[in-house]
Amino acid sequence: LPSARTEVAAAEVGGKIYVIGGYGKNGNLVEEYDPEKDRWRARASLPQPLHHTGAAAVNGKIYVIGGYISGVGSVDTVYEYDPVADRWAAKKPMPTPRGALAVGVIAGKIFAAGGVGANGRNTHANEAYDPVQDRWTKHAPMPIARDHHAIGVFNEKLHAIAGRINGNHDRSIGDHEEYDPAADRWRPRSPIPSIRSGIAAATLDGKIFIFGGEYGRKTRRE
């Protein structure tokens, strides 16, 4: 990665990986990685420096949702990136400002669940963005409000896994909740075996994989 940074967002479009924003002086940087050429290049910067955002790709474009601005706190901004034009555009703001949220895509809509709200405490908010209509809708709230969690998508359902309470490293949780958009309903599922927050998730071959994270002031290898 050409620029060192943390608390970034990442998304894949057209076989290329885009690393977006981050904590510190590089908070508005966007860098594109081409696996075939094993090469990085700089792309158009975010309209403002952001970290702890959610990012998702839909219909060939990337959407960066919420996050923090250093010295300001949680934001409600939504930015659309067009890789072909290398251009950003502001979209309809999220109803509930928040950072350290998690997002997942189902049927072309981006669901944003949880995070830290403008008051510095967790929100139960579960809101969906429709890129085609540039519109947000509110849905059944998360039963357990949390931040620094991960969302995996499997069988047209969201799986919110682990996280922490009100940004407290010493209050990480292992709870796992599944959201069914068709029924607009959450239900508890099997908790993660080892508690952690600040994690990454990926879905592959019918399984949701969780990587790394923090528990207390220590990081995990699992």
Molecular structure report:
Helices cover 0% and strands 48% of the residues. The protein has 222 residues and is an all-beta fold. The strands form eight sheets. The chain has a four-stranded antiparallel β-sheet, with no helix packed on it. A four-stranded antiparallel β-sheet has the order 5-6-9-10, with no helix packed on it.
SSE inventory with pairings:
Elements: E1 9-13, E2 16-20, E3 30-34, E4 39-42, E5 54-58, E6 61-65, E7 68-69, E8 73-74, E9 78-82, E10 87-90, E11 98-99, E12 102-106, E13 109-113, E14 116-117, E15 126-130, E16 135-138, E17 150-154, E18 157-164, E19 172-180, E20 185-189, E21 200-204, E22 207-211, E23 214-215, E24 218-219
Antiparallel strand pairs: 1-2, 2-3, 3-4, 5-6, 6-9, 7-8, 9-10, 11-14, 12-13, 13-15, 15-16, 17-18, 18-19, 19-20, 21-22, 23-24
